[in-house]
Amino acid sequence: MGQWYKRQVTSAAAPSRRRRWPVPPSLLVGLAPLVLFAAVSAWRARPSDDYPSLGQTVDSVVRSLVIPEGIAAVVLCLIVTGLGWWRIATVDRTRSTLRWTTLAPILIAVVCLVRLPLVDWGALPSHYFLLLAVGVLFVGVFEELMTRGVLLVGLRRRLPEFGVWAVSCVLFGLLHLLNVLAGAGLGPTLIQVVFAASFGSTLYVARRVTGNLLAPVLLHAFWDFGSIGVSATVDVSDLSKLTLVGVVGLLAFAVLALGIVAGGVIAWRDDRPRRLARRWRTVPPMGAFAVPGSEPRLEAVTADG
Predict the structure, then answer these.
(1) What is the residue-level pLDDT of the chain in tens, covering all 305 positions?
(2) Residue 87 CA from chain centroid, whole number
(3) How many angstroms separate the CA atoms of 158 and 175, rounded?
(4) What is the DSSP letter of 50?
(5) Do 30 and 151 form a contact (C-beta atoms < 8 A)?
(6) How far apart are CA 252 and CA 274, in angstroms?
(7) Is 96 left (phi over 0), alpha (psi -120 to 50) or beta?
């Protein structure tokens, strides 16, 4: 009797023990790290900065990647800890069941692998590549936790999943407009914005199919490692290698197109129960079609029965 009573009390009290986050999820809080990062980046940028030389030397990797991105990653981790959002920002309760969508992140990983032989590993000292790996890992942690983590939590408070996918990809792309303030050309930057938004869709797919943020973090870091490594070591006079780099780039754009489709389909399918619920709410109640005088006859039949 005592055990039964204990179980009943526990089960009755369970619904009331709802988990409370230190800071409730909201759109404004979700956008805050992104806005803060954009403001700090704009304040630090100088028109005289040589953005194309980013990561070309050991000193540039340390000054432009390891130190600033490491500080940004640590600060954002502290913010997420204070918010109490680690679980909801890094883990999805349900994974996407559309298996074909896994092709998008897998093929991007293949592109990253194919690009590694194009890096001239002897052109720079070995510790350059070690520092570059650390720097791009910081970039992956910071940017993914900010855009595919905290931002997604905030957007999901106000938008359906399709809107969350679209807005998060667009904002991730627009963040790269800040590179103009650091000395990048406007034309290449606009191409980078489109590329980043498309890449953001593939990273969104990576989170949704795996159920956590680790996959997009590693994929993001892997992509940046190859991209910077190739640009830092490629011999511009070697036309054959430049041609291969261009072919790999075109292949990447084709794969990213698949990532856009996959991300949109996943988000659209997630919203199907929501759309169905709205559709059923528009159906008039059955009483609206009742024929006058039919209810008394029904009651009479029931009484006779």
Answers:
(1) 444 434 444 444 444 455 566 889 999 999 999 999 999 988 887 665 667 777 889 999 999 899 999 999 999 999 999 999 999 999 998 899 899 999 999 999 999 999 999 999 999 999 999 999 999 999 999 999 999 999 999 999 999 999 999 999 999 999 999 888 877 788 888 999 999 999 999 999 999 999 999 999 999 999 999 999 998 988 777 788 888 888 888 899 899 999 999 999 999 999 988 777 776 665 555 555 555 554 544 444 444 44
(2) 15
(3) 21
(4) -
(5) yes
(6) 34
(7) beta
